[in-house]
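ENCODED BACKBONE
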Amino acid sequence: MVIEQIGNIIEKRKQKVEDLKNLNINLFPNDFIVSHTVQDIRSAIKDSEDIITENEPVFVVAGRMMAINRFGKTSFIRLRDRTGQLQAYVRKDRIGDESYDIFKQLDIGDFVGLSGGMFKTKTGEWTLLVNKIKLISKAIRPLPEKFHGLKDPEKRYRKRYLDLIMNSDVREIFIKRSQIIHAIRTFFLDRDFLEVETPMMQPIPGGAEAAPFKTYHNALGIDLFLRIAPELYLKRLVVGGFEKVFEINRNFRNEGVSTQHNPEFTMLEFYQAYATYEDMMDLTKDMFSQVARVVTGSTSITYQGSPIDLEGEWKRMTLKSALEEIGGIEQSLLNDREGLLNFASSNGIKITKAGRLGKVITKLFDVLVEPKLIQPTFITRYPVEVSPLSRKNEKDPTMTDRFELFIAGREIANGFSELNDPADQRERFLEQVARLEEGDEEAHRMDDDYIEALEYGMPPTAGEGIGIDRLVMLLTDSPSIREVILFPHMKPKVE
């Protein structure tokens, strides 16, 4: 029934299009000059009395008509541009019979240009008294019905342009996303970091354990991979003398889609020479606090009903101590792979990669500990076998100087002191290659060129990666990653 009604509306609008063409009306002109935004007008009238005058000054504004209320020879319209909404009053005796007849052929959703002065209605609302009105772009399809709007998540994600038109809270999320990225960039530039760009297509996918997307370059005659991380290229830059670098850009991982995962996502990565993973933790806390203050006005936020303090003390725990204190696993089991597998089985926890103790430990952490880490918490000391690019801890060489940051029950960041010993790095890569040959498609490839770069010498360095999408989720109180990505990936629609 609804589809039939929409079809009828479209047909009526198409007839209006023909009628307007017969009147020699250009439906899509490109010569209207805008002198004011809605916000400009509001700023100009902010301190004015009831009437600026109906003729002076003249404001010229353009936007989409979101509502039209017709009363014979007069009409009120609600116009919206990128800065806000404005009421306008259209009178036949003011714009002329011919213009008013054309205006009667216009619809909600059409773009128009208006000019006129401002006055206050009896209800006290500042309103544009229209002297001239011009059609700028004709909409053939009707907007979603205003009272019910566009609520279905799948329709909202597939037709994000309608979502942005109809839902002001969605527009606000993406405005904040832009502000968050700007604040991050400012934070690093103010600290003498250099912003760089590294390859999106790489001959060897590296910098993380993840399944890559593969393509082929015809001219070069080689396979290339969409990058899973920029890490190894950024560290090449540290070798080259850029001691503080950062990049905000896309990563691609051929993995599942969920409320926390999208195969294409935005990542911040940064590296600093002569720093340690502990320095990165301090820097991260400062950055989160500053960005939250800039974007939300406070370092105290609420995420899905849970208050979170970004200014207070951020807890630091080792991975094993967290498993013991929060996960409820006895300390004696933490070095016993078979014992941990039995524990997992008895607690209904499925572990698919059970061949290595490090993978068993991190899987148990994901299930038993991660969801409980609501306040900002750094988890440190990850096993070497799950940290192929991290520096070994000097007191316990089975562990690395690595941390992950958790807020609101999910991982937000991953950082470590970088492995800069080329011999050690080669051995780590060889272990990864063996796993790859055993069928683990997420294992790291051998990268001889990166080893060669390390052989020229890389200073002691620490680095970190932060998922921008998850940070935006946190600071906009969004439950799903799809709410903060303009065009999330989805399965093809089945008709």
Notes: The mean pLDDT is 93. The chain has two domains: 2-143, 165-326+369-483.
